[in-house]
Amino acid sequence: KGKKGKKDSGDPADFDAKDNLKRAETEIFSLQRQLDVAAQEMQYSREHEREWRERLDAFGTAMETQREDTLDIMSDMSRQFKAMQEKHLHKIDSLEKQTKELQEQLAGKDDEIARLRAEYEKKCAEKDLQIKDLKNRQEQMANEFSEMLKETLDKMAECLDNTDDKPPDFSELQEEDDE
Prior knowledge:
- Its main location: cytoplasm.
- Component of the nexin-dynein regulatory complex (N-DRC).
- This protein has a domain at about 15-120.
- It has helices at about 1-5, 10-160, 170-179.
- It contains three helices and no strands.
- It is about 90% helix and about 0% strand.
- The longest helix is centred in the middle third of the chain and has 151 residues, at about 10-160.
- By secondary structure, the protein is mostly helical.
């Protein structure tokens, strides 16, 4: 029975033990709260770390994809450039050959024109000479005809003078023409 009463007795050792127990419980509670807060902060930090790692991985993947796309584009552009360059070089060669062929044809045509011009001038000179010969011949024939006509007229005049009223004798003229 006496022990029951001692509980509330106010013994400093009991008081210190109770107080220490209460302080220990408070401290434990406080440490548990700190532990819970630290655990929550750690979990929050791990989630953020995970999110950042995911974002980093996504950026890394995006950068790798971008790099591959860039390499693909550069490769494609290089291929297109080489193909275009090859095409243009082939076209240049083709046009140079065509130019050379056309220059050769032009030179051949110039030679042909020179030959035809010389031939034309030669024919013109021959025709001019032929025309000159024909004109000379025509003049000669006109002179001969004029002389023949003059002789005939002279003979007719002579015949008319010899015969006063006799008809002219054309037999002599006919004999001369037959000769």
